[in-house]
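Same chain as my last thread, 167 residues:
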Amino acid sequence: MVSPISLVSLVFAVAIASVDCNIEVDALSAWKTNLVDPNGYLKNWDPTLVNPCTWFHITCNDDDRVTRVDLGKDELSGILVPQLGDLSNLQYLEVYGNNISGDIPTEIGKLTTLIALDLYENQLSGTIPSSLGNLVSLNYLRLNSNKLSGAVPAEVLQLVKSGNLLV
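reply #2:
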């Protein structure tokens, strides 16, 4: 027979594990609610699932952590949300050729494993966040054909000087 204390401990442990596993689902779901998807590309992004690895346009590693989001030329509109910074294993964020508007969230600078950030051919505005200088693994940064203003931050230019940022 299972003791009530053991049962409570088990439920608590499962709840903690679920919270940790859902941070990526929460981040992507928050983004989905801020996007208009006229072609239904995000229709299987189900926030009730613990694992987003079966969702269209999402790639995961062997540990079921999101490493790639491919939403290029999907006719999406809306904004990038700060929660995208919670995708701690993300290597590729491909959101080019859409109608994404608003600012680039500074939280994108938390994605230190990011190799490619492709946000070109959108309607992004504001300045390039200096926090993008934290992306020490970044090889490809494409922000052209947006409505961005201001100078490229020195922190981002340092990525070029260090030899990591190639494009």
